[in-house]
DNA sequence: GATTCAATTGCAAACGTTTGCGTAATTTTT
DNA sequence: AAAAATTACGCAAACGTTTGCAATTGAATC
C-alpha cells in the first residue's frame, strides 16, 4: 500500500523527468541506451510494478473481461471458465467473475459494477429470473453504450448479439434417438427448470425426436426438476409410480441422473435392461456413476474458448455480430448400452 | 467505449465546474438542493456511470480482490469461491479469479498482474510446483510491499501470515478412527499428490490414528493418486492385489472414492461389508455414489467466507496476522456404516 | 564562428474523479 | 449601513502513466 514505488519516485532518484523513466522502461529508442539500462536495472532491483490502473484510465482499456454466470457449482460452468482462461491468460487479460445465483437483482448490480470498472467486454449467461420475466433493460443499456456483450448458453435476443451456444436441441434429439434405437418404448424426460433456454431446447429436441418416430410426448412421462440429484429423487419416484412405467429416461443433466439412478436401484430395476438412462453435460464423474452414465457432451470448455476468441476478434475490430453454435456429442456408456437393437 | 459520458461532459451541459457535478452526484450538502436534484436526474437519465478506475487511482484502493487457485474443477474450490463472493459482494468487492493449473510460472505471472492491477488483497492457494520446490520469492515480494495475502488451504510459512485452513489432520484422524470403530483391521490409504500440505496432513492424521490404536502404517497399503477418479483405478487395483487385502480404505478425496468403488465392485467385493470406504470433501454427489459415500466435510464454503471476513477485518485496520482453523465434520453414510462395532 | 542537424531530455496535457481552499454572492447580525 | 456570517460554487492539485512537442546539448557542416 504505502510502499509502492511510482515512476515519479524513480525520476526523483535519477533527477530526471517521469517521462524519461517511462520511456526508458518501455525501451524507447529515443532514450540513451546506457541510461535506459541503468534505469531498467534499478527498477528491477526495487521491484517496480507498473500501475495498470493509470494505464486503463489513459487508454480506455482495462485488459479485464467481466464474466457473469448464474452458478459456479457445476462442471459446465467451471469448464467454461477454464476455457475462457485458457485463451485469455496468454492474451494478457484478467477475469472478473460474478456469480448471480440466478438472481436478476444481483445480475443487474454486477453488470453495473463491471461497467463502472470499465471492463473491456462481458461474457454473460443470463439468470433464470432475467429470463422468466424478460428483464433486459440492463442488458440493453450496456449494449447501447457499445460495451461488447457475449452471451453464453442463454441469450434473449434472436439477432444482433454475439453468442456462443451448444445445439441443445440436437443433443437432446441425439440422446432420445439413441434410446429409441436401444429399443426403449416409453421414454421419459426429466425436464430442467422452466424458463431457461437450455431446458426448453432439450425438451424440444426430445419432443421432436419422439415425433419423428411417430410417438407423442406423454405428460405423465415428463417431470420437472432442478439441476441437482436431490430434486431428481422425487421426480423419478413419480415416473416409476406411473401405471405404465418408462423404460428409458432422458434427463436434463448428469447430476439429475445420479439422483434418478438412486431411486431406480432402490426399486430394484436394472439399468439399462429395465430402464436405460442418458444424461447431459458429460461430467467427469459420469463414467463413475453406479452404472457408467451415457451422456451428451456439450463441449463446455469449448464454449469458453470460443467466447474468448470471439471477444478477441471484436477487440481486433471485427464489428459484426457472430453466432457460434457448437455440436453436441453423444457419449455412450453402460447406462444405455443394451446390445440389442430395435 | 466512445459514448461513455464523464463528469466533464455533464459539467459542460450545465455550464459549471466538474467539481460541482461530482459533489452533486455524491449528495454533498454544500451544493444547492435543487441543482443537486436536477443534476442527479439528468445523470440518471443519460445513464451516467461513475468511472471506478479514476477512483482507484485516487484512493489507492480498487475494491477488487485477487484470487489465485490451482484449479477450479472440484467442488472444494468452487465452494470457496461461492463463500468469498457471498461475503464480498455485499461489501462491494469484485473478484479477479486466476487459475494456475498447479503451475508455478502461471502463479508468478498472475501474482504480478494482480499487483499491477492494484488489487486490495490476494487470496491464494499455492500451486503444487510452488510447494514442491519452495519457490516463494514472488510471495515474499508481494508481502514486502505490504499487500495483504491470505493463504487458503496451502501455505508455506508457519508464522507471520494470514491463513484459513481446515484441520485436515484431525479430519483424517476422525475418518480413520471411524473405520477402526467399524471393525476394519487393515485400513489402506489412497494418498494425495506429494508435496501438497493437504495430502501430507491427511496422511499424518491417518498415521497418527493407526498409531493410537497400536497399529503401523504398512507401505503396501498406502498408494499415491491424483485428485481424480481415473487415477484411483490403478491404485485401488494395486491395493486389492495385495496378499492381505485391506478391509477399509480412507481416500484423500471423494472423486478418488468414485474410482475406487468402480474397481471394488468390479471385483465383486461388497461395500461396506468387505471393504469400508471413507472420502474427503463431502462433494454434492457423495450421497449419490454407487454406495452412498461417507466423507469428511471440510466446510469448503466456510473457508471462502472466513477468508473474506479476514480480509475485511484487515481493511478495517486489524494488522496482526490471523490464523483460522476450521473443524472438519465426519458425515457417515452407507459406504462405512457396518452396524457392528469392534 | 555561425548554422544546421541529430541525439537526448523535459514540459505539459490528458485520462476521470475527488477535495481543500479560495471567492464570490447573498443573508444575517450588530 | 457596515461588518460578519452563511451559502454556493470554481480553481487547481492529486493519483500514475504516456506522448506530442519544445528545448537543450553537443557535434558536425559550411
SSE arrangement:
2 copies of one chain form a homodimer.
Chain A: H1 7-14, H2 18-25, H3 33-45, H4 52-59, E1 64-69, H5 75-88, E2 94-99, H6 104-116, E3 121-124, H7 128-132, H8 137-144, E4 149-152, E5 162-166, H9 168-181, E6 187-191, H10 197-212, E7 222-224, H11 229-240, E8 248-251, H12 254-266, E9 276-280, E10 294-297, H13 300-315, E11 323-326, E12 329-331
Parallel strand pairs in A: 1-2, 1-3, 3-4, 4-5, 5-11, 6-7, 6-8, 8-9, 9-10
Antiparallel strand pairs in A: 10-12
Helix pairs in contact in A: 1-2, 2-3, 5-13, 9-10, 11-12
The structure holds a DNA duplex (30 and 30 nucleotides).
How would you summarize what this structure contains?
2 copies of one chain form a homodimer. By secondary structure, the first copy, chain A, is α/β, with parallel strands linked by helices.
For the largest beta-sheet of chain A, the strand count, sense and barrel status come to: 6 strands, parallel
CATH superfamily of the largest domain in chain A: Response regulator
What do we call the CATH topology of the largest domain in chain A?
A: Rossmann fold
Q: Greatest chain-chain interface?
A: A-B, 60 and 60 residues
Q: Per the principal axes of the C-alpha atoms, what is the gross shape of chain A?
A: elongated
| Overall domain count of chain A | 3
For the biggest β-sheet of chain A, the strand order reads 2-1-3-4-5-11
Find the count of extended strands of chain A (DSSP E, 2+ residues): 12
Task: Give the low-pLDDT segments of chain A.
Answer: none
- Helix and strand composition category of chain A: alpha/beta
Q: DSSP helix count of chain A? A: 13
Q: DSSP strand (E) fraction of chain A? A: 15-25%
Give the termini separation of chain A: 71 Å
Radius of gyration of chain A: 26 Å
H and E string of chain A? HHHHEHEHEHHEEHEHEHEHEEHEE
